[in-house]
Amino acid sequence: MTDKGRKRIRKSPEERKREIIKAAVNLVGEKGYYGTSLKEIADEVGMSQPGMLHYIGNKENLLSMLVTDSYDAEGTPDDFIRSGLPGSDRGDLRFPAYLRFLVRYNAQRRSLLQLYIVLESESFSPEHPLHEYFENRPDLVWGHYSQFPWSLPPEVGGWGNMRPIVRQCVEAMDGIQLRWTRKPPIDLYDEWLVFERMIFPSPVWDRYR
User: Fold this and answer.
1) Are residues 43 and 107 in the same domain?
2) What pLDDT was estimated at residue 195?
């Protein structure tokens, strides 16, 4: 059948965006933001660069789609609550249980995790589009988690006292994920359990995991 006779498959804007995001995750995760051109991403999805810009606007907006609309929007406490897993009941919502859920979730999206690590290291430069985002990340994480009714041991004295613990969790998870993306890789979940025992020690947290 000639090209003229072949029926053209029209894809929805959502499908096109998913294709662009997938290609960008792989390319930027391998080569970084500055090392990846929009033309390379467009070529990967079989589009012209002007055609791709119709869906993403510009390169900085693409970063927002990758980080805030993809990475940050998945594996959230709301996702955990909907999962029905132990510790996910809103009436008895367990923070350590959520973090185990998040680690398992991240283990299924290695390419996106590698992208996040690369962008975080690049963002030390004040000129990087995500510099401010990563500078403010600890406050953003704390603010987001503070919206949920976590069940805590009485010894903690309330969620307001959890900020240093949340910071430790983020820093430990960042380090573990970095090791996980290297070769030879470690077991992401098993390694997190080692840190969980240190951050949420027995016997205080035994009934709140």
Assistant:
1) no
2) 97
d(CA 38, CA 82): 36
Helix (H, G, I), strand (E, B) or coil at 150: strand
DSSP of 92-120: GB-HHHHHHHHHHHHHT-HHHHHHHHHHH
**Reported pTM:** 0.87
Q: Does residue 135 share a domain with residue 84?
A: yes
Contacts of 27 (CB under 8 A, 6+ apart): 36, 40, 41, 44
Report the amino acid identity of residue 176: I
Residue that has been written with the tokens 């606007």 in this structure: 57
What is the tally of structural domains in the chain? 2
Residues of the chain with pLDDT under 50: 1-3, 5-6
* Segment 58-71, tens digit of pLDDT: 998 898 888 988 88
Q: Kindly state whether residues 50 and 100 are assigned to the same domain.
A: no
DSSP 91: G
State how far the Cα of 81 lies from the Cα of 175, in Å rounded to an integer.
Answer: 26
Residue 125: domain span = 74-208
pLDDT value for 68 = 85
Separation between Cα atoms, residue 76 and residue 184, nearest integer Å: 28
